[in-house]
Amino acid sequence: xxxxxxxxxxxxxxxxxxxxxxxxxxxxxxxxxxxxxxxxxxxxxxxxxxxxxxxxxxxxxxxxxxxxxxxxxxxxxxxxxxxxxxxxxxxxxxxxxxxxxxxxxxxxxxxxxxxxxxxxxxxxxxxxxxxxxxxxxxxxxxxxxxxxxxxxxxxxxxxxxxxxxxxxxxxxxxxxxxxxxxxxxxxxxxxxxxxxxxxxxxxxxxxxxxxxxxxxxxxxxxxxxxxxxxxxxxxxxxxxxxxxxxxxxxxxxxxxxxxxxxxxxxxxxxxxxxxxxxxxxxxxxxxxxxxxxxxxx
Length: 297
What we know:
Layout: E1 4-10, E2 13-20, E3 23-32, E4 37-45, H1 54-65, E5 70-74, H2 81-86, E6 90-91, E7 95-98, H3 104-112, E8 148-151, H4 159-169, H5 177-185, E9 189-195, E10 198-207, E11 212-220, H6 229-239, E12 245-249, H7 255-258, E13 263-265, E14 269-272, H8 279-285
Parallel strand pairs: 4-5, 11-12
Antiparallel strand pairs: 1-2, 2-3, 3-4, 5-14, 6-14, 7-12, 7-13, 8-9, 9-10, 10-11
């Protein structure tokens, strides 16, 4: 088999198409913010190529196109888990799909495919307290906060302040302001929470424009914990995407939060990290290579 591969990008959608003698025989697609995060949304080949290496080759080319990024994927067939594992993916423990804006028929179809774990599911190590990486600092008293308002636009937003909120929320490590500006402007949907004129929470999403979305950078100023801002920015952002397959990956400490509130915990999702993740951290996010649930053998 002599197959040619062609890579392309249109907005947030990265594509790799394969051709044999000029005939289109397979495609792989992902949505991406162009810098940090991406999710594979489609890997399809013609039926006569279903048994063979074409899917893996497409994924290799797509992975190269997304070099340096964290990559997520969700498989419809657990027999394909091994293909991703060979490419360095691990099964994710911390991935969710938002279902509140999804039609009952589509949700029923997802359930039949076995995409989700039972409500309230916990892996064994999640019954033990896990130290948060967020320093709450001095939480603002409620009487000192006006009504939190939300906007679905970056118009007039202080991106330096957004960068500060992200830095404070994710361990205090200073982020590259230029990267923050680029990924937020590359995002099709945003949600920004304000206390007066002060930005106190954010979230964003990249989409393919019609069916797939990836929620990213859900962050709240640690001083504003307890005002339900985190949930509100996610819920408001999700309402901008009715009927979409909305994927979200979270920190292990937030699993219990997202296992309520209209999210289903994914059973067949995987993640790839471009850098080496320390084992003590990786164990909170990923299952061991080759892990299978009892009903998958």
